[in-house]
Amino acid sequence: MAWVKGNKAHTSKPERDRILARDEYQCQIRGIGCLGEASEVDHIDNTRNANYWRDSNKQAVCPVCHKVKTQREATEARAARRARGLYPVEKHPGLIA
Ligand SMILES: [Zn+2]
Fold first, then answer.
1. How many whole angstroms from 51 Cα to the centroid of ligand 1?
2. CA of 13 to the centre of ligand 1 (A)
3. Centre of ligand 1 from the C-alpha of residue 39, in Å
4. Number of structural domains, the chain?
5. Cα(69)–Cα(14) distance, rounded to whole angstroms?
6. InterPro entries, per this entry (predicted)?
7. Residue 97 covered by a domain
8. pLDDT digits (tens, 9 = 90+) for 27-77
9. From the CA of 75, how far away is ligand 1's center (Å)?
């Protein structure tokens, strides 16, 4: 699938299957245009905090809701960068767990 290309595939297939099974293959977002059946895994909090890799920060989502959320997060990240005065957004050295 397209979203797996490049360096975006930070959720392995066994992990994805585990989260999808946990959420019974039902999309957890249920936004406008939702397909209902989940086939992808989303990180609920996308800010790479200490909980980023925990299962509790993952949810089963359908491709439609996932795309909407990802686009919204990208927009918010751009706005946050602007608000901070155009500093390049790099990993905070203090956040390495
Ligand atoms: Zn959905």
1. 23
2. 19
3. 10
4. 1
5. 23
6. HNH_nuc (IPR003615)
7. no
8. 999 999 999 999 999 999 988 888 888 999 999 999 999 999 999 999 998
9. 19
Please report the sign of the dihedral spanned by the C-alpha atoms of residue 9, residue 10, residue 12, residue 16.
negative
In the reported structure, the alpha carbon of residue 36 is separated from the centroid of ligand 1 by a whole-number distance in angstroms of: 5
Structure-token pair, residue 24: 């019974």
In a domain, 5, yes or no: no
At 6 the three-state DSSP class reads coil
Ligand 1 centroid distance, CA of 15 (Å): 19
- For residue 13, give the nearest of 51, 40, 44, 43 by alpha carbon: 40
- Which pLDDT score, from 0 to 100, does residue 7 have? 46
The alpha carbon of 30 and the centre of ligand 1 are apart by a number of angstroms equal to 4
Residue-range definition of the domain harbouring residue 73: 10-84
Amino acid found at 86:
L
Instruction: Establish if 16 belongs to a structural domain.
Output: yes
Cα(35) to centroid of ligand 1, in Å?
5
